[in-house]
Design a protein that fits this description.
Distance between the termini: 62 Å
Radius of gyration: 30 Å
Number of strands: 14
CATH topology of the largest domain: Alpha-Beta Plaits
Strand content: 15-25%
Largest sheet: 5 strands, mixed
Structural class: alpha+beta
Bound molecules: thymidine-5'-triphosphate, magnesium ion
Number of helices: 13
Strand order of the largest sheet: 7-8-3-9-10
Number of domains: 4
Helix content: 25-40%
CATH architecture of the largest domain: 2-Layer Sandwich
CATH class of the largest domain: Alpha Beta
Length: 410
């Protein structure tokens, strides 16, 4: 056997041994960190090993929800309704209550009951027709306030949102400030819940309504959850709560008695979530519905150049790409931005805005060429060329007017 062959076999053996030991390590790690929670189609189902709320990397989540939203807007805008039981909704025979003012709630009037029933419950109830445009406008106002504190804003409906403010020192102080700004800017009250995850923050915002602020601090999570009736958990609906009641599960403490496999048997995959809830655990992230503000493309040259005809050729290719992206995303914008990076890494942007959206590739190219022609390279060569289109005149689907901070372009 040649020396080379021996060396080759030895190396293969070492690699094999390394692979085996890392496989064994991964397997051990997997078993240490996971738990078998059931069987599906003859295969074992694993789930992460049980933890407690205090083991986890902690987020700071705020949930904000406006109080009696539609009704409060109507009371704000019409002094005759203030201090009185009102219901927003049509009063006709097929009418439904969208919401009721806090003065109407002690009578049992609330969202989704028929207007006829609401009138029976509270004969002096005042019905007010909804004005959705006004509610949308207020919704935009509060969302802009939220965005001043974090980009991680996940609206759940017109009147509520989750905010991830993990970067802040005190989420409670931020929530207090947001409530004050909402009042100052809209003359409406909101309730805030603050905790380490979405589930708890949502429960907390409901805890001291109206005009409430409630924090469930990490050290309080276990006791809070233990005492909580299961129907108050965010994500446990009426039907599930009834099923839990039938099983003798009335509170978080009762739920905690159940192991994960049994919960999965009773409630399917949701059982894993409920297992976490009982321990104050909810891993869901705040997912912002980001608004597209611009579309762009860029190219870095293999070799820096100041050859204007070569630059024009590449500019055409970049515009082609931008145009096809604009069409793919059905995005329209009135502003073209040209970005140039020089051989000394200095970067400049130049923009042109049209009265109406750019609606053809030739127009896009002409505007980009004009911008390029207007740039003085000051003796430098170009390293990168980029083109972007922004400044959409459209209202985004969630009702927020698109804004175009220029830094966001390209
Ligand atoms: P909610 O936040 O559920 O209720 P609310 O703001 O009226 O009262 P609370 O103080 O308890 O938060 O809903 C927000 C708005 O959404 C509400 O004002 C009207 C509308 N809505 C409906 O139109 N139909 C419904 O079934 C519900 C629940 C709400
Ligand atoms: Mg509300
Ligand atoms: Mg709400």
């Amino acid at each position: 056997m040649s020396l080379d062959k021996i060396r080759y076999d030895a190396a293969r053996h070492r690699t094999k041994r390394k692979l085996c030991s890392s496989f064994a390590f991964a397997l051990t790690f997997h078993y240490l960190c996971t738990e078998v929670i059931g069987k599906s189609g003859g295969r074992l189902l694993f789930a992460p090993w049980p933890r407690t709320a205090t083991d986890m990397p902690q987020r700071k989540i705020i949930h904000i929800d406006m109080d009696a939203f539609y009704a409060s807007v109507e009371q704000r805008d019409n002094p005759d309704y203030r201090g009185k039981p009102i219901a927003v909704g049509h009063s006709g025979p097929r009418g439904v209550v969208a919401t009721a003012s806090y003065e109407a709630r002690p009578y049992g009037v609330h969202s989704a009951i028929s207007s006829a029933q609401a009138r029976r419950l509270c004969p002096r109830l005042i019905f007010v027709a909804p004005r959705h445009e006004v509610y949308k406008a207020v919704s935009m106002q509060i969302r802009r306030i939220f965005l001043d504190y974090t980009d991680l804003v996940e609206p759940l409906s017109l009147d509520e949102a989750f905010l991830d403010v993990s970067h802040e020192r005190s989420a409670t102080l931020v929530a207090r400030e947001i409530k004050k700004r909402i009042w100052d800017e809209t003359r409406l009250t909101a309730s805030a819940g603050i905790s380490i995850n979405k589930m708890l923050a949502k429960i907390a915002s409901d805890y001291r309504k109206p005009n409430g602020l409630f924090t469930i601090a990490p050290a309080q999570v276990e006791a809070f959850v233990a005492a909580l009736p299961v129907e108050r958990f965010f994500g446990i609906g009426e039907v599930t709560a009834q099923k839990m009641h039938a099983l003798g599960i009335l509170t978080g403490a009762d739920l905690r008695q159940w192991d994960r496999a049994s919960l999965v048997r009773q409630f399917g995959k949701a059982g894993i979530l409920y297992y976490g809830y009982a321990r104050g655990i909810d891993d869901r992230e705040v997912i912002p519905n980001r608004i597209r503000k611009s579309i762009s493309a860029e190219t870095t040259f293999a070799e820096d150049t100041d050859d204007r005809s070569r630059l024009t050729n590449v500019l055409t290719e970049v515009c082609d790409e931008v145009w096809s992206r604009l069409q793919r995303h059905r995005f329209k914008g009135k502003t073209v931005v040209l970005k140039l990076k020089f051989d000394n890494f200095k970067q400049i942007t130049r923009s042109k805005t049209q009265p109406s959206p750019i609606d053809s590739m030739p127009l896009l190219l002409r505007l980009a060429q004009e911008l390029l022609a207007s740039c003085d390279f000051e003796g430098h060569k170009i390293r990168l060329i980029g083109v972007g289109v922004g400044n959409s005149p459209e209202i985004a689907p969630d009702g927020i007017q698109l804004r175009l901070p220029f830094d966001d372009l390209i």
